[in-house]
Amino acid sequence: MAQRPFWTGYLKLSLVTCPVALTPAHTASEKVRFHTLNRKTGDRVESRYVDAKTGKAVREDDLVKGYERGEDDYVALEDEELEAVALETTRTIDIEKFVPKDSIEWIWYDRPHYLTPNDKIAEEAYSVIRDAMAATKTVGISRLVLYRRERAVMLQPRGRGIMLWTLRYGDEVRDEGPYFGALKPEKVDPKLLGLISTLIEERKASWSVSMLADPVQQNLRKIIAAKGKGAKPARAKVHAPEPPSNVINIMDALKRSLENERPRPKRR
Known about the structure:
Number of strands: 10
Helix content: 10-25%
Number of helices: 6
CATH topology of the domain at 7-26 and 86-172: Ku70, Chain: A, Domain 2
CATH architecture of the domain at 7-26 and 86-172: Beta Barrel
CATH class of the domain at 7-26 and 86-172: Mainly Beta
Order of helices and strands: EEEEHEEEHEEEHHHH
Largest sheet: 8 strands, mixed
Protein backbone atom coordinates (compact mmCIF):
# COMPACT_ATOMS: atom_id res chain seq x y z
CA MET A 1 0.00 0.00 0.00
CA ALA A 2 1.33 3.45 -0.97
CA GLN A 3 2.08 5.69 2.00
CA ARG A 4 0.65 9.18 2.32
CA PRO A 5 2.97 11.86 0.87
CA PHE A 6 4.85 14.02 3.35
CA TRP A 7 5.08 16.97 0.91
CA THR A 8 2.77 18.35 -1.77
CA GLY A 9 3.45 21.22 -4.15
CA TYR A 10 4.12 21.95 -7.80
CA LEU A 11 6.53 20.81 -10.50
CA LYS A 12 7.37 23.71 -12.80
CA LEU A 13 9.26 23.88 -16.11
CA SER A 14 9.03 27.31 -17.72
CA LEU A 15 5.25 27.87 -18.15
CA VAL A 16 4.34 24.21 -17.58
CA THR A 17 3.14 23.54 -14.01
CA CYS A 18 1.48 20.53 -12.42
CA PRO A 19 0.65 19.51 -8.83
CA VAL A 20 2.88 16.75 -7.45
CA ALA A 21 3.43 14.80 -4.24
CA LEU A 22 6.64 13.58 -2.63
CA THR A 23 7.16 10.43 -0.55
CA PRO A 24 10.48 9.15 0.84
CA ALA A 25 11.63 6.00 -0.97
CA HIS A 26 13.31 4.75 2.22
CA THR A 27 11.54 3.65 5.37
CA ALA A 28 12.65 2.54 8.81
CA SER A 29 9.16 1.65 10.05
CA GLU A 30 9.90 -2.09 9.97
CA LYS A 31 12.92 -1.77 12.27
CA VAL A 32 12.65 -3.00 15.84
CA ARG A 33 12.32 0.05 18.10
CA PHE A 34 12.72 0.29 21.85
CA HIS A 35 11.34 2.48 24.62
CA THR A 36 13.24 3.29 27.78
CA LEU A 37 11.63 1.68 30.83
CA ASN A 38 12.00 1.85 34.57
CA ARG A 39 13.56 -1.53 35.39
CA LYS A 40 11.82 -1.66 38.81
CA THR A 41 8.25 -0.86 37.68
CA GLY A 42 8.33 -1.72 33.97
CA ASP A 43 6.76 1.67 33.22
CA ARG A 44 7.92 3.92 30.37
CA VAL A 45 10.23 6.82 31.20
CA GLU A 46 9.25 10.25 29.81
CA SER A 47 11.56 12.95 28.48
CA ARG A 48 10.68 16.49 29.53
CA TYR A 49 12.09 19.93 28.88
CA VAL A 50 13.19 21.68 32.05
CA ASP A 51 14.41 25.23 32.65
CA ALA A 52 18.21 25.07 32.84
CA LYS A 53 18.29 27.49 35.81
CA THR A 54 15.13 26.80 37.81
CA GLY A 55 14.99 23.07 37.08
CA LYS A 56 11.20 23.32 36.64
CA ALA A 57 9.37 21.56 33.77
CA VAL A 58 8.42 23.82 30.84
CA ARG A 59 5.04 23.45 29.11
CA GLU A 60 5.05 22.80 25.36
CA ASP A 61 3.21 26.08 24.73
CA ASP A 62 6.08 27.97 26.37
CA LEU A 63 8.82 26.49 24.14
CA VAL A 64 10.32 28.88 21.60
CA LYS A 65 13.33 28.88 19.24
CA GLY A 66 16.32 30.94 20.40
CA TYR A 67 19.45 32.21 18.64
CA GLU A 68 22.49 32.51 20.92
CA ARG A 69 24.35 35.80 20.37
CA GLY A 70 26.43 35.65 23.53
CA GLU A 71 26.83 33.69 26.75
CA ASP A 72 23.35 33.23 28.26
CA ASP A 73 22.07 35.85 25.80
CA TYR A 74 19.45 34.68 23.29
CA VAL A 75 17.13 36.21 20.70
CA ALA A 76 13.75 34.42 20.83
CA LEU A 77 11.96 33.84 17.50
CA GLU A 78 8.29 32.88 17.21
CA ASP A 79 7.07 30.34 14.64
CA GLU A 80 5.32 33.13 12.70
CA GLU A 81 8.60 35.01 12.37
CA LEU A 82 10.41 31.93 11.08
CA GLU A 83 7.63 31.24 8.54
CA ALA A 84 7.90 34.83 7.26
CA VAL A 85 11.37 34.11 5.82
CA ALA A 86 10.28 30.86 4.11
CA LEU A 87 11.63 30.53 0.58
CA GLU A 88 9.48 30.08 -2.52
CA THR A 89 11.05 26.65 -2.94
CA THR A 90 8.99 25.34 -0.03
CA ARG A 91 6.14 24.57 -2.47
CA THR A 92 7.57 24.68 -6.00
CA ILE A 93 10.12 22.47 -7.75
CA ASP A 94 11.21 24.83 -10.52
CA ILE A 95 13.57 22.92 -12.84
CA GLU A 96 16.41 25.36 -13.51
CA LYS A 97 18.82 23.22 -15.57
CA PHE A 98 19.25 19.84 -17.22
CA VAL A 99 22.57 17.98 -17.14
CA PRO A 100 23.72 14.64 -18.64
CA LYS A 101 22.39 11.81 -16.45
CA ASP A 102 25.86 10.33 -15.84
CA SER A 103 27.54 13.63 -14.94
CA ILE A 104 26.48 13.57 -11.26
CA GLU A 105 28.46 10.94 -9.37
CA TRP A 106 26.69 8.71 -6.83
CA ILE A 107 28.72 10.21 -3.96
CA TRP A 108 26.57 13.37 -4.22
CA TYR A 109 23.28 11.46 -3.88
CA ASP A 110 21.62 11.88 -0.48
CA ARG A 111 17.97 10.80 0.01
CA PRO A 112 15.68 9.27 -2.66
CA HIS A 113 11.99 10.19 -2.95
CA TYR A 114 9.12 9.15 -5.20
CA LEU A 115 7.73 12.18 -7.07
CA THR A 116 4.20 11.52 -8.36
CA PRO A 117 1.44 13.57 -10.03
CA ASN A 118 -1.11 14.68 -7.46
CA ASP A 119 -4.21 14.46 -9.67
CA LYS A 120 -5.31 12.98 -13.00
CA ILE A 121 -5.00 16.28 -14.90
CA ALA A 122 -1.36 16.58 -13.82
CA GLU A 123 -0.38 13.23 -15.37
CA GLU A 124 0.04 14.57 -18.92
CA ALA A 125 2.49 17.37 -18.00
CA TYR A 126 4.29 15.04 -15.59
CA SER A 127 4.65 12.33 -18.24
CA VAL A 128 5.93 14.74 -20.90
CA ILE A 129 8.69 16.04 -18.58
CA ARG A 130 9.62 12.47 -17.55
CA ASP A 131 9.78 11.12 -21.12
CA ALA A 132 11.68 14.16 -22.41
CA MET A 133 14.40 13.65 -19.77
CA ALA A 134 14.59 9.94 -20.66
CA ALA A 135 14.83 10.68 -24.41
CA THR A 136 17.58 13.28 -23.95
CA LYS A 137 19.39 11.19 -21.30
CA THR A 138 19.35 14.09 -18.87
CA VAL A 139 18.30 14.76 -15.28
CA GLY A 140 16.74 17.96 -13.95
CA ILE A 141 18.34 20.18 -11.31
CA SER A 142 16.27 22.34 -8.97
CA ARG A 143 16.14 23.58 -5.39
CA LEU A 144 13.62 22.66 -2.72
CA VAL A 145 13.13 23.26 0.99
CA LEU A 146 13.10 19.83 2.65
CA TYR A 147 13.95 18.80 6.20
CA ARG A 148 14.07 22.51 7.23
CA ARG A 149 16.81 23.49 4.74
CA GLU A 150 16.93 24.52 1.11
CA ARG A 151 18.62 21.78 -0.86
CA ALA A 152 19.73 21.13 -4.42
CA VAL A 153 17.67 18.27 -5.84
CA MET A 154 17.93 16.05 -8.90
CA LEU A 155 14.92 14.75 -10.86
CA GLN A 156 15.61 11.40 -12.51
CA PRO A 157 13.19 9.43 -14.74
CA ARG A 158 12.63 5.88 -13.50
CA GLY A 159 10.22 3.68 -15.45
CA ARG A 160 6.83 5.36 -15.40
CA GLY A 161 7.81 7.71 -12.57
CA ILE A 162 10.33 10.32 -11.49
CA MET A 163 12.77 9.95 -8.61
CA LEU A 164 13.74 13.09 -6.69
CA TRP A 165 17.13 12.87 -4.97
CA THR A 166 18.29 15.46 -2.49
CA LEU A 167 21.96 16.18 -3.21
CA ARG A 168 24.67 16.68 -0.62
CA TYR A 169 26.10 20.15 -0.06
CA GLY A 170 29.52 20.90 -1.49
CA ASP A 171 31.18 20.89 1.95
CA GLU A 172 29.66 17.52 2.92
CA VAL A 173 31.74 15.41 0.52
CA ARG A 174 35.39 15.03 1.48
CA ASP A 175 38.08 15.41 -1.15
CA GLU A 176 39.37 11.97 -2.15
CA GLY A 177 42.95 13.21 -2.65
CA PRO A 178 44.20 12.71 0.95
CA TYR A 179 42.87 9.14 0.89
CA PHE A 180 43.68 7.86 -2.61
CA GLY A 181 46.37 10.31 -3.72
CA ALA A 182 49.25 8.42 -2.09
CA LEU A 183 48.39 5.11 -3.81
CA LYS A 184 50.97 4.33 -6.47
CA PRO A 185 49.82 3.48 -10.01
CA GLU A 186 51.52 0.09 -9.93
CA LYS A 187 51.04 -2.42 -12.72
CA VAL A 188 49.23 -5.55 -11.60
CA ASP A 189 50.67 -8.97 -12.38
CA PRO A 190 48.52 -10.38 -15.25
CA LYS A 191 48.53 -13.85 -13.63
CA LEU A 192 47.17 -12.45 -10.36
CA LEU A 193 44.61 -10.43 -12.28
CA GLY A 194 43.48 -13.57 -14.09
CA LEU A 195 43.09 -15.54 -10.86
CA ILE A 196 41.11 -12.75 -9.19
CA SER A 197 38.88 -12.48 -12.30
CA THR A 198 38.24 -16.23 -12.12
CA LEU A 199 37.38 -15.94 -8.41
CA ILE A 200 34.95 -13.13 -9.23
CA GLU A 201 33.30 -15.28 -11.92
CA GLU A 202 32.91 -18.12 -9.40
CA ARG A 203 31.05 -15.79 -7.03
CA LYS A 204 29.02 -13.90 -9.63
CA ALA A 205 25.25 -13.98 -9.06
CA SER A 206 22.12 -12.11 -10.10
CA TRP A 207 21.21 -9.18 -7.89
CA SER A 208 18.47 -9.89 -5.37
CA VAL A 209 16.94 -7.85 -2.55
CA SER A 210 17.47 -10.92 -0.35
CA MET A 211 21.17 -9.94 -0.27
CA LEU A 212 20.15 -7.04 1.96
CA ALA A 213 18.60 -9.13 4.75
CA ASP A 214 19.31 -7.76 8.23
CA PRO A 215 20.25 -10.69 10.53
CA VAL A 216 20.41 -8.42 13.60
CA GLN A 217 16.75 -7.43 13.19
CA GLN A 218 15.78 -11.08 12.64
CA ASN A 219 17.58 -12.16 15.83
CA LEU A 220 16.00 -9.32 17.81
CA ARG A 221 12.52 -10.43 16.76
CA LYS A 222 13.31 -14.01 17.83
CA ILE A 223 14.48 -12.80 21.25
CA ILE A 224 11.39 -10.59 21.69
CA ALA A 225 9.05 -13.44 20.67
CA ALA A 226 10.75 -15.86 23.07
CA LYS A 227 10.67 -13.42 26.01
CA GLY A 228 7.05 -12.59 25.22
CA LYS A 229 6.20 -16.25 25.76
CA GLY A 230 8.13 -16.34 29.01
CA ALA A 231 11.05 -18.32 27.62
CA LYS A 232 14.64 -17.44 28.27
CA PRO A 233 16.27 -17.05 24.85
CA ALA A 234 19.76 -18.38 24.28
CA ARG A 235 22.44 -15.74 23.97
CA ALA A 236 23.77 -15.38 20.46
CA LYS A 237 27.42 -16.29 20.18
CA VAL A 238 29.47 -13.85 18.16
CA HIS A 239 32.71 -15.22 16.83
CA ALA A 240 35.20 -12.65 15.58
CA PRO A 241 37.34 -14.03 12.77
CA GLU A 242 40.89 -14.79 13.80
CA PRO A 243 43.48 -12.62 12.03
CA PRO A 244 45.99 -14.53 9.89
CA SER A 245 48.99 -15.61 11.93
CA ASN A 246 51.42 -15.22 9.06
CA VAL A 247 51.64 -13.46 5.70
CA ILE A 248 51.33 -15.91 2.80
CA ASN A 249 52.10 -15.51 -0.88
CA ILE A 250 49.14 -13.87 -2.66
CA MET A 251 49.43 -16.31 -5.59
CA ASP A 252 49.16 -19.29 -3.21
CA ALA A 253 46.24 -17.65 -1.40
CA LEU A 254 44.33 -17.12 -4.65
CA LYS A 255 44.93 -20.70 -5.78
CA ARG A 256 43.66 -22.03 -2.45
CA SER A 257 40.63 -19.73 -2.67
CA LEU A 258 39.73 -21.10 -6.09
CA GLU A 259 40.10 -24.66 -4.83
CA ASN A 260 37.67 -23.88 -1.99
CA GLU A 261 35.18 -22.13 -4.30
CA ARG A 262 34.82 -24.93 -6.84
CA PRO A 263 32.39 -27.77 -6.00
CA ARG A 264 34.10 -31.05 -5.24
CA PRO A 265 33.21 -34.10 -7.40
CA LYS A 266 30.74 -36.52 -5.83
CA ARG A 267 32.12 -39.82 -4.56
CA ARG A 268 30.74 -42.96 -6.11
